[in-house]
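Quick one, T. Sequence first:
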Amino acid sequence: MKKIVAVIGSPNNEKSNTVTMTKDFLEAVKEFYPTMEYEVISLGETLIQPCRGCWACMKTGCCIHKNDALPEIMQKIRQSDFLILGSPVYENMVSAQIKMLFDRTFMWIHLVGLMGKPALTAVTYEEDGRWLTEKYLTALMTMMGCITVGHLRGIGKAPGCFPGREHCKAKYKALAGQVAAMLSGNRKIRPSIYNRICFWMMKKHHHTDYEYQYWLDKGWFKLSYSKALQKERTHPKG
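Structure tokens:
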């Protein structure tokens, strides 16, 4: 059973225009691929502690925060077949909620922890800031190893006021079909040059013994990006 996990960094939960746009898109994917499952995680409904910058995760592989929602969210992301990360535009950038998620999962950048996972960004905005927000989401996901295959963009206003909703439904119907084809194996997922560059950069820079050992255990030091990606795709998610 294939599953898409969408993580939306909005404090408005069910009234969030980003959540609404994403759910509409997921229902469209389901029309093409009825057996697909999905889950939308709204960070406004969860407790995530702020990163303390202690580097415990990079030294041991474990975060010092044990009693918030992040470990479960990270597990769901890792086990998903497709990831959507979304945010409304706040002051020309992502929301505080999605920024906190990135801060707490920064070890995935050093470990290329989401190697080969296909992904979309989802951004809603009123006037400007969409490009910067989308670029930031794409950059962070790419550094974590995701292969970004598209973007959802919607013009919204106040929470629950989404005048561009019907336009988005029609506009992203074709993309929904493409995502369904990727999930079913009928469409190839092609990495970008930036995926290769990020892999090469992380291969050359190791800040802790844990990070070095992780790459050693993966066998990635001796592999090109293409070979490492092929190897990763033959192993189950986890």
